[in-house]
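Q: Given only this backbone (281 positions), what sequence would you predict?
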C-alpha cells in the first residue's frame, strides 16, 4: 500500500466517518476499487489509526461547545453525564441483542462467526444506506424546536438507534442518531453535540476491538513472512494525521449544512450511494 492509497482512504474515512453518509460503506468501496484486502493486518492497523484520527478531530472541534454545555457547572455535568450513560447503555443492550440475533439467524450460532463476515454483502450495505437516507430526509422535514433540550427518554432512543447501526455497514451512526434526536424535538446544535459526544465514548471501544483483531492477525503474519508491527505503524500514523484534518473539514461542513437547513441533502446522497454500492457489488 503506497502513499496514494493511504491518502485516499484517509480522506474517505476522515470525511465520511463524521458526515452522515457511512464511512464504512465508502471505505469498503474504495478498498475494492483499489484492489486492497480489508482483512490484511496492514489494513486493520490503518483502520485503527484512521478511527483514532477522527476521534481527535471530534474532540478538538467540539471541545469549546462541550465545555460550555457539559462542564459549565457541576449540575450541568451530572445531568449530561446521565444522558450519555443512558444512551450508551441502550446502545450496548440493543447492539448485543442484535448481534446475538444475527448470529443465530445467519450462522446458526456458529462460534467462529463474526459480524465482519456480513460487511461484503453489497445488498445489505445498500439497504442500510437507503434506510439512513430516508431517515435523514424524514427528520429534515420536521420543524425545529430552537430550544429543544434532550431528556432521558430522548437519550435512550438515540442510544437504541445507535445500537442498530453497529452491525450494519451503511447505516450511518451520525446520520441516524442526529435524525432521531431531531425527530424527538431536540435542537439541531444540541442533537449534533450529543451525537458526537456519544461517538467519543463509543470510538475507543471500536479502536480496542480492531487493535485486538490486529494483534491476532499480526501473530499469523509474523509466522508467515516476518513482517514487524513497526512496519505497519508508520503508514498508519500518516493516515491518522490525514484523517484528523479531513475530519475537521467534514465537521465544519456538517455543522454548516445542519444549521442552514440542508440536512436533507445528506439523505439524498445516501440514496444515490446505495445505488452505487449495488452497481459496484
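A: Predicted residues:
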Amino acid at each position: 500500500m503506497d502513499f496514494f492509497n493511504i491518502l485516499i482512504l484517509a480522506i474517505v474515512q476522515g470525511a465520511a466517518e463524521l458526515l452522515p453518509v457511512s464511512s464504512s460503506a465508502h471505505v469498503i468501496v474504495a478498498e475494492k476499487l483499489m484492489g486492497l484486502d480489508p482483512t490484511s493486518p496492514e489494513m486493520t492497523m490503518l483502520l485503527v489509526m484512521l478511527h483514532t484520527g477522527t476521534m481527535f478531530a471530534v474532540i478538538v472541534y467540539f471541545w469549546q461547545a462541550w465545555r460550555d454545555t457539559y462542564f459549565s457547572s457541576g449540575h450541568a455535568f451530572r445531568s449530561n453525564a446521565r444522558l450519555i450513560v443512558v444512551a450508551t447503555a441502550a446502545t450496548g443492550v440493543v447492539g448485543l441483542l442484535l448481534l446475538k440475533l444475527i448470529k443465530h439467524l445467519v450462522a446458526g450460532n456458529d462460534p467462529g462467526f463474526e459480524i465482519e463476515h456480513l460487511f461484503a454483502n453489497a445488498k445489505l450495505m445498500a439497504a442500510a444506506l437507503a434506510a439512513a437516507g430516508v431517515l435523514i430526509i424524514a427528520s429534515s422535514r420536521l420543524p425545529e424546536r430552537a430550544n429543544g433540550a434532550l431528556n432521558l427518554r430522548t437519550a435512550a432512543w438515540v442510544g437504541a438507534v445507535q445500537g442498530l447501526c453497529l452491525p450494519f455497514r451503511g447505516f450511518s451512526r451520525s446520520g441516524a442518531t442526529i435524525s432521531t434526536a431531531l425527530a424527538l424535538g431536540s435542537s439541531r446544535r444540541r442533537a449534533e453535540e450529543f451525537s458526537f459526544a456519544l461517538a467519543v465514548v463509543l470510538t475507543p471501544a471500536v479502536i480496542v476491538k480492531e487493535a485486538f483483531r490486529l494483534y491476532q492477525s499480526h501473530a499469523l503474519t509474523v509466522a508467515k513472512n516476518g513482517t514487524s508491527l513497526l512496519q505497519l505503524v508508520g503508514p498508519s500514523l500518516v493516515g491518522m494525521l490525514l484523517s484528523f484534518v479531513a475530519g475537521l473539514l467534514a465537521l465544519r461542513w456538517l455543522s454548516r449544512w445542519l444549521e442552514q437547513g440542508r440536512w436533507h441533502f445528506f439523505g439524498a446522497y445516501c440514496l444515490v450511494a446505495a445505488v452505487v454500492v449495488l452497481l459496484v457489488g
